[in-house]
Amino acid sequence: MRSEFFLTSLEQQQLILYLKATTYHTVKQVAAFVEGKYGKKYSVEGMTHLLHKLGFVYKKTKIIPCKLDPKKQEQFKIEYQKLKDSLNPEDKIIFLP
Which residues belong to any copy of the Winged helix-turn helix domain (predicted)? Predict the structure, then answer.
């Protein structure tokens, strides 16, 4: 594969930030995103190698029980709405794992 097919350092940094904010379940999905965003095609193996190089590891998704504490959920919704109401239009809320 020739170098113009690889992501630049800037594109790699953008991908890191994007993947920290977005969950994908497969490498194939990440490769499709990269192809759509940057026009650079990666095989599953090539994308896996790049993701490992960038410090990402595969973590199997976990099942979350549906019997969560309703009081805590309601409190979170209230606090979240307060936060949203206090933001400027250009501000964003980012959820980290």
Answer: 23-80
Residue 78: how many other CB atoms lie within 10 Å: 10
Q: Token pair of 19, please?
A: 């993947």
**Residue listed under structure tokens 């994308």:** 47
Query: Digits of tens for pLDDT over the chain (97 positions)?
Result: 454 569 999 999 999 999 999 988 899 999 999 999 999 999 999 999 999 999 999 888 777 777 778 899 999 999 999 999 999 989 988 888 7
How many Cβ atoms sit within 10 Å of the Cβ of residue 31? 22
CA dihedral 71, 72, 76, 77 (to 10 degrees): -30
- Does residue 37 fall inside a structural domain? yes
Q: Say what the pTM is.
A: 0.59
